[in-house]
Structures are given as structure tokens and as C-alpha cells.
Design goal:
Methane Monooxygenase Hydroxylase, Chain G, domain 1, 7 helices, 0% strand
């Protein structure tokens, strides 16, 4: 039946298109993360003022250009899946709001949320409530939630390194002043 064959082809093409667009979304997220990581890297502190200014301008330009790219793959959700996504997003947003006040607590909470998103044996405690919410989300949303948490974990880890480096500079400066 040619109608059935056309439907199969259409389905395959649509899925390929969605997969390509999703990969492009992820590429954009990765580029934004790399640019932001460059802007806050330790190397920015060790280069000359002129190089730093040039690198900052280039990074800002790249960030602006990357942000002009809009790729959107809409997920079809039931009302229950939409509700679960809203709850999961609110939980993650709440932790993001706590990062500045309690970096270590936020890091541990993000790890528990991440453990709730992985199927193999997690390395640490699992946030059971969050896991139940995530399981109620659409599969595409589950993947996006996991990626967002992974990105946040990297950002928290990098900011922790930056804070430690800054603290070490302060300690070194205090030692120099004391001598």
C-alpha cells in the first residue's frame, strides 16, 4: 500500500528533522557554555590587559551572535506531563537561586537531582520526589532536564574553582603584605 509507505517515510523524515534540530539545540547550549566558561576562566586573569580586552570583546560578539540563533523543537505533552515539567523546573530554579548562598549545598542537591535522572546505579543519594516528577515528564523533557542539571553541575564546579582560586590569591596577597 503506497499510503502506508508514504506515512512511514514521512514519520522517518519528521523524526530525522526533530533529531537534527535537537542536536542543533544542544550544540547552541554547548557553545554558550564554552563562551561563558572562557569569559570566567582563570586564564583571563593571567593575560595582559590588552589581550583580556580583545578576548572579552570577541567572546561578547560570539555570545551575541550565538544568541541570535533560535532553534525550537516543541514537545507534545499531556496536561500531567506539563504539570510534571513545571514542578521539575521549579525545583531546579529554586536550587539555582540558592547557589550564591550555599554553593556546597547546591552542589550536593544538584547531584541528588542528577542521580534521579540516570538509570544505572547512581554514585550517591537520589532525590526520590524529584525522580517521581521526572518520570512523569515526556521523554524529551527528561533528557533536557538531565542536560540542564549537568550544565548547572559543571557551572557550580567551575564557580567553586574560581572562588578557590580567588581565595588563594587573597591568601597569597595577605602573606606578601605580612612580610
Amino acid at each position: 500500500d503506497t499510503g502506508k509507505g508514504a506515512r512511514v517515510i514521512d514519520t522517518l523524515q519528521v523524526e530525522a528533522l526533530r533529531d537534527t534540530a535537537t542536536a542543533m539545540e544542544q550544540e547552541k547550549e554547548n557553545l554558550l557554555e564554552q563562551i561563558q566558561s572562557l569569559q570566567t576562566s582563570q586564564e583571563m586573569r593571567t593575560i595582559s590587559d590588552g589581550e583580556r580586552e580583545e578576548l572579552t570583546l570577541t567572546a561578547s560578539r560570539l555570545l551575541g551572535r550565538t544568541l541570535t540563533v533560535n532553534i525550537s523543537v516543541e514537545t507534545i505533552r499531556s496536561p500531567q506531563q506539563q504539570d510534571a515539567l513545571s514542578k521539575a523546573t521549579a525545583i531546579i530554579d529554586e536550587i539555582v537561586g540558592q547557589v550564591l548562598d550555599n554553593l556546597e549545598g547546591a552542589r550536593k542537591h544538584l547531584q541528588a537531582l542528577h542521580a534521579a535522572c540516570i538509570s544505572d546505579a547512581p554514585p550517591g543519594p537520589v532525590d526520590q520526589k524529584f525522580q517521581t516528577i521526572v518520570i512523569s515528564c515526556a521523554l524529551e523533557d527528561q533528557k533536557k532536564i538531565k542536560r540542564r542539571i549537568e550544565t548547572l553541575m559543571r557551572n557550580v564546579e567551575n564557580s567553586g574553582k574560581t572562588i578557590r582560586i580567588t581565595d588563594n590569591y587573597k591568601i597569597d596577597a595577605q602573606k606578601l603584605c605580612a612580610n
